[in-house]
Amino acid sequence: MASKLLRAVVLGPPGSGKGTVCERIARSFGLQHLSSGQFLRESLRGDGGECPRGRPSITAAFPPPMTAPFCRGACTGFPRTLGQAQALDRICELDLVISLNIPFETLKDRLSARWVHPASGRVYNMDFNPPHVQGVDDLTGEPLVQREDDKPEAVAARLRKYKDAAKPVIELYKSRGILHSFSGTETNKIWPYVYTLLSSRIPPLLSDEEN
């Protein structure tokens, strides 16, 4: 099966569309989509380890039962730092790393336009995925809120922090010859290039048009 033939990571700053890209990879190539958020939720439920101060750590959130499926899938949101990349090396060897390069201003605009329904976690973007009625959740009619870290000043700080932390990670994978970078402002325009890359490694289950 294709899911046994590829181990990939999709890297990108907040708002870069890496979750969307990874979901399309999972559908098109029969891979598992594993996110750092998924592992953290497992850790919070007591299924993973905890760091000394009681906060679940990304590295600790990869307990032994999770390492086997991870080595047959595509992961987003991890690793974010060089230390996490080195921890990942102890779990399995990556076949390729996809890095999404999106202009700073595009990311800032995307994230600043994001509002959420706190109870469900549903996310809306006022530019390309707005709610049916401004300011309220489509399903419950409850008010939407903008998270503190999605406000313009906080967004700029988050993006700078990501860039500083990600630079050594990207350099590490570049030195290994497994880094593939894609630049653009729209996920739909970047995706065909990602699809072509992966199609050269494993047979797709869906055509590009079907996804």
UniProtKB/TrEMBL annotation:
The UniProt entry, under Gene3D superfamilies, shows: P-loop containing nucleotide triphosphate hydrolases
**HAMAP family with a match to the protein in the record:** Adenylate_kinase_Adk (MF_00235)
Can you name the source organism?
A: Bucorvus abyssinicus (Northern ground-hornbill)
Q: Which InterPro entries match?
A: Adenylat/UMP-CMP_kin, Adenylate_kinase_lid-dom, P-loop_NTPase
Name of the encoding gene? Ak4
Q: Does the keyword Lyase apply?
A: no
Q: Enumerate the UniProt keywords alphabetically.
A: Kinase, Nucleotide-binding, Transferase
Protein name (record): KAD4 kinase
A single GO molecular-function term is:
ATP binding
Looking at the record, the residues that make up the Adenylate kinase active site lid domain are 114-149
| Family per similarity comment | Belongs to the adenylate kinase family.
